[in-house]
């Protein structure tokens, strides 16, 4: 049988500018030798002077010896770039089986949407599918999490092959769809066509999930459910960005009516709804575009009020003043001009 040839697992490249560094190293070594010569030729007399001379000589010798040892790496500096995909190609049959546990404890703090996105991203790892097992451990035994996992198992049949075929990054459906909202659809016709089919599969669950999210948003008024209401607000705005304006338009008016009523009510000081609301308004603004203009009168007053708050971070250098990204929720309305 002929010998099977494999592509190398890494590439070694020599560093540029070696001649300049070697010239500098030689000049530095000559300087160190001159320092040694000076110390040996100028021995201080006297008991106190001898101790000082010995200490300075020892420090010079240690510094010079340490510097010589470090040149073993720096004299011929190289960089190695690994190719992780080739590792799977060469040792795919020898790779071990891997079990991954995704743990969740509180469905209020860890919404089902976030947990399922984590599970789907792990399932789409660049690893042999038959050797990868993913388990979801729900300490709370939430029925919502179980139902969401049941639906996600059907969606994974389309999502995982899509990620492996087109090397999708990020692999979380929510993060990926959010990225294409801002950056645009892929230019590859086959990928764009398959992405359209994936988005249709994702939209099938919209009609199932959205009524529950709207019910939580409207009815979770107890103080113990404030975080749950805020998370539902976040999920609604993220899902709306993913499915697009045409699909989300009918529910958007109901959601924004609830948000306006919450904004006009007296919220507790420790209620996280206010901060989540500004971020939700930002996503809704980006999703609806011009259709969001009638709501600007309700949104701008709390936005201007929050802009007057004392910042937690003070910029002390002009070099650290960077522009905000449009997808950064810390600057919610940077794209509403």
Give an overview of the whole structure.
This protein is mainly alpha-helical and 337 residues long. The protein contains 12 helices and 4 strands. The strands form 2 sheets. A two-stranded antiparallel ribbon has the order 1-2. Helix 4 links the parallel strand 3 and strand 4. Helix 6 packs across helix 9, helix 9 runs antiparallel to helix 10 and helix 10 runs antiparallel to helix 11. It is elongated and about 90 Å long. The C terminus is likely disordered.
Strand order of the largest sheet: 1-2
Termini separation comes to: 68 Å
What's the pLDDT, averaged over the residues?
Answer: 79
**DSSP helical segment count:** 12
The share of residues in extended strands comes to: 5-15%
Percent in helix: 55-70%
Instruction: Give the SSE order as H and E letters.
Output: EHHEHEHEHHHHHHHH
Count of distinct strands? 4
- Spans of at least 5 consecutive residues whose pLDDT stays below 50 are 313-337
Largest sheet report? 2 strands, antiparallel
Report the structural category.
mainly alpha
**Could you say which overall geometry the principal axes of the C-alpha atoms support?**
elongated
Rg for CA atoms: 30 Å
